């Protein structure tokens, strides 16, 4: 495994933490009314955890399966496996609230050990939360204790091997705990890539991508992660499910789709067979300007429907364009931020005068001809070419933006992201509904949006919100999130395009599924996990009372 352990209370590699420049602090204060929180963030030692509920004989039985040294009950190990990395998760951690900590962290070393652990935990009524990179932003890792003897985090980090590469079929086999950068490194030696680059790339795992139906920044060219998975193995308390003996099949419903997005509630993914592509020899990234988000959206739709699609396609709305989130590596450079932020805050998330930035990235085969054809479409739709500068800047800073969140939280601003998707004809309504819900719930937040996952029939909308923290920022965000979830359901969008359901989206997901759909999920859960030990409280809507 490469890389530093992730910050226990924030995002990413602690060495890459970024300070907010003073002009931005001043603007947050003067224009959004942001004030530094009264109490400093808790230290690791100050985080309060519940006492370990699992009795010694049970801890011993777990250790018998995975070996001594692979059952951890130390303070830091439990803290590091408490919840995920949503903003409420980080706010709770900064407040020293470790109440959702697992009793133990268990690290299996093989499929057989996972299967044995699931049998043991079913027998002893121990809840099991599969844990990949720990980057869930939907409450996918918070342990529910009610009715259980205890909770374990099943950390898949020891299952970190490349299993095989079949270059004839262009399929590679991996264990689930391989982190995305390690997967790319393992494939690079053979000139191959998965092409999956979500913003959580540095820490998320392949098993987590499959379990949460992740979508990466290059989804226009490489597809979503569910397009990449051709086969997988699922260990369940009821036995092992092997799926994917051919790329496509007419033998009934495709059960792979039942496992993709199952968020650890049906079983533990212990291996994956993934489609690989030749690593691109050529890359070309550039920027375009559109007069408005509506004009830019029409251009993006034209590319999705007529082709050719670039590998990366991202359109920021007016506010995101002004604030510069499309060029995150430039944020933090001082005065330039200040004037951009001032413009954006003055508009309180409204339309500004600088138009909208579109980033188009071309990788792989026929870059020249695809670029020429796509450029003709973008020019016809009113786009103004800005050259390679904005595109290269975006590519350079593509994983940087989350590092700003910790500095913003420390300064007293809540910053969080949320997303949805819909058909093209409904997208403007969905955009307005989410913005109005946020403005209604938070007063005058900064609301930014971009489109970065497109299909012939529709697209996702990805929002970033900045607002001053009140005395209880978790409750404040919970209220805003509830308002947005209701607005998305009402406006006919899906509650999530790629973050998943977890616990945070459960109510809205139940509305989206309807009673018959929810009943199907409960029936599958009852078949695969009769004792209900797997990630209880996540994904599966409870029966209506
Ligand atoms: C800063 C940031 C940026 C992000 N950017 C993106 C993005 O661009 N695109 C995107 O799609 N998502 C993004 N996410 C969300 C998150 O990274 C994804 O959901 C990712 O797929 C989670 O992978 P993970 O390995 O961290 O899984 P975890 O967070 O550990 O787990 C996620 C869920 O999957 C289950 N699970 C994990 N491994 C297994 C397994 N082997 N078997 C069964 N269940 C399992 C867990 O129980 C949990 O329910 C972002 C998150 C953050 C914090």
Automatic annotation (TrEMBL):
**Active site residues of this protein:** 462
Q: What is its EC number?
A: 2.5.1.26
Q: Where is this site: Important for enzyme activity?
A: 314
One Pfam family cited in the UniProt record for this chain: FAD-oxidase_C
| Positions with a binding annotation for substrate | 405
Please list the residue ranges annotated as the FAD-binding PCMH-type domain. 98-279
The organism's superkingdom is given as Bacteria
Q: Which key words are in the record?
A: FAD, Flavoprotein, Transferase
Q: Could you state a single Gene Ontology molecular function term?
A: FAD binding
Top class in the EC scheme: transferase
UniProt KW Flavoprotein keyword: yes
Could you mention a single GO BP entry for this protein? lipid biosynthetic process
InterPro entries per the UniProt record, alphabetical: Alkyl-DHAP_Synthase, FAD-bd_oxidored_4_C, FAD-bd_PCMH, FAD-bd_PCMH-like_sf, FAD-bd_PCMH_sub2, FAD-linked_Oxase-like_C, Oxid_FAD_bind_N, Vanillyl_alc_oxidase_C-sub2
The cofactors it requires, by name, are:
FAD
Protein residues bound to FAD: 130-136, 263-269
The similarity comment for this entry is: Belongs to the FAD-binding oxidoreductase/transferase type 4 family.
Protein name (Swiss-Prot/TrEMBL): Alkyldihydroxyacetonephosphate synthase
Q: Which organism is it from?
A: Nonomuraea rubra
Phylogenetic lineage? Bacteria, Bacillati, Actinomycetota, Actinomycetes, Streptosporangiales
